[in-house]
Specification:
Low-confidence stretches: none
Mean pLDDT: 87
Strand content: under 5%
Number of helices: 4
Largest sheet: none
Order of helices and strands: HHHH
Distance between the termini: 33 Å
Structural class: mainly alpha
Number of strands: 0
Shape: elongated
């Protein structure tokens, strides 16, 4: 699921990220581009649509381990929180002299 989400993210955002990267790499003292739209127009004129997708394969390969790691971290954190909540509920129940289910409510 995480890999599919990563592919969807990069598949939808890669052309925008390409334009952003070109603007970031542009010279501050003598900029080649006037802005994002100018960068897009000039990039399309010089490189065509393929220029917006240059490097997408590497980004998709990178998305596999990155999104798998994110998925594992999120699920691990969710489990840790669930386990901690049960411990806190049991502790509070002991302090209040109630059973854990009624203390959680």
């Amino acid at each position: 699921a995480g890999v599919v989400a990563g592919f969807g993210l990069w598949g939808s955002m890669f052309p925008i990220d390409t334009i952003k990267s070109k603007i970031q790499a542009d010279s501050l003292s003598k900029p080649e581009f006037k802005g994002a739209i100018d960068c897009l127009r000039r990039s399309l004129a010089v490189e065509g649509h393929a220029g917006l997708w240059r490097g997408v394969t590497a980004a998709l390969w990178r998305a596999i381990p990155v999104n798998a790691a994110i998925f594992l971290a999120v699920e691990g954190t969710r489990q840790l929180i669930a386990d901690t909540e049960e411990s806190v509920d049991a502790f509070m129940a002991g302090l209040l002299g109630k059973d854990a289910r009624s203390a959680a409510m």
